[in-house]
Amino acid sequence: MINTPIVVETHNLTKIYGDGEEVRALDNVDLTIHKGEFIAIVGPSGSGKSTLLHLIGALDRPSSGEVIIDGMPLSQVRDLDHFRSQTVGFVFQTHNLIPTLTAQENVEVPLYETTSQRNDRRDRARELLTLVGLRERMHFLPNQMSGGERQRVAVARALANQPTIILADEPTGNLDSKTTADIMRLLSDLNRSQGTTLIVVTHNHEVASATQRIITLRDGHIQRDVITETSFERELVDFKSSALGQALLRGDELPQEMRDIAPQLRELLEDI
Ligand SMILES: Nc1ncnc2c1ncn2[C@@H]1O[C@H](COP(=O)(O)OP(=O)(O)OP(=O)(O)O)[C@@H](O)[C@H]1O
Ligand SMILES: [Mg+2]
User: For residue 219, how far is the Cα from the chain centroid?
Assistant: First the structure.
């Protein structure tokens, strides 16, 4: 991964909300992300995950510090809307589809910014819906589709302009575990086959363990940043989501042979 170009850099990235009672949502975050990485951002509620995603995606401006996308400092970008439509694709927890438009028309929306020919927009939307397995649902409205199908339309829409990065904020938050696994498989396939850089905010440890790198935020700081491709970290993440790992974290009664190592193991799990 280190051999691929850098696509996202943040330098001393800081975001402070409010004027009276200030909230330091992000505090001097330095981050480097290479092309083709598949990253999970985890951490407690309020730790700054969405804020970080919004700043990387140019949905909001930092209070200080810089975000550099593909070598371009965002502070120097005049037309952020245009830059965003060319560079990043977003997938949110609630899919944000337009209820009165079909799947195909929803995927066409971001293409109005980049593609002037109507036929080209339609062909591209159809190609993307086929890619996410929804060729048969092209003309359905959002309320005629399941949650997982709607989320796949949202992924297709995010891919429309071949963005450098896809940013997803709890993309599986409203889905059951089977559909969650389907969406994660889809994202993982896209990452592998198209080399799309993916950054996924999640509370779900199974989702996090499907990625290659897990960044843990706490109080606006990066607390941990681990490559899960190394087997030990990956096993720990997998163990954390297992029944035994969960029992250990809850402090439940454990099998005899585990009691001696339980305190150290718990510390490792709490940290990941
Ligand atoms: N628009 C805003 N105005 C004021 N404070 C905000 C705003 N957005 C976020 N915050 C505060 O900034 C901090 C970080 O919020 P953020 O939404 O980034 O957290 P998060 O890690 O995404 O949490 P969650 O897991 O609950 O989505 C929180 O303390 C939050 O209350
Ligand atoms: Mg959030």
Answer: 19
